[in-house]
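Ticket #4471: structure output looks truncated?

Reporter: J.K.
Steps to reproduce: submitted the chain below (229 residues) through the standard prediction queue, then opened the result file.
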Amino acid sequence: MAYKKRLGRRFSPDERDKGYQMARLLPRVVMPTSKTWRIAGANLDQGDTGTCVGNAWTNFLRSAPIQTSATEQMAFNIYDLAIKLDEWTDNDEDFERQMGTSVRAGAQAVMSMSRLKSYIWSSTLQPVVEWVLLNGPVVMGTNWYTSMFSPNNDGLITITPRSRVEGGHAYLLRGVNTKTALASFCNSWGENWGISGNFLMDFKTLERLILEDGEACSAIEKKLSAKNL
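Returned output as attached by the reporter:
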């Protein structure tokens, strides 16, 4: 499978993340039914590297409400810093950028670059949907199945019965529509994949991916402590 090298997310659960949950920061208000956050420039392409975590966080930074300019080099810089911050030592000298890292390490790298102050999590679908509706995009880290490499003509990806997990992938959730129960994402495989580098997924599939060792992480410009949430 040509795309296998183009994954690169490692899963790293941490009980401390439960102290920094999106749901605690969401107000009790009437939610809009849809929101898609603008993103600056053409979609990036990680090529044959395993830098999807760096790319996902770069896409986060180049998406509204932050919407900074970004290049593939920024994604590589985030990845190179993240592999030094994660808990694994086997990837510390990953000069070819093949071994991958965690979504958390990517968030820590972005914070250490003074881009953002805190990162928060959700392990269920509803707070993720509400966060996108009200606050901004979310970096997803999930399993990636065989059939997910091939979106249909509408850009929709599904998990077919014979699909198997090919590895872990990180990508940016940038839009949701509660009426159609569809979520829209920005990937890091260039403009020629999916719909100009983007894809759709139904809520049911997204919920499945979150529940099976998935991660949903966003970052904010305010420093938080668990005791104040």
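Triage note (M.O.): checked the attachment and the full token line is present. The first helix runs from residue 52 to 62.
Status: closed, working as intended.
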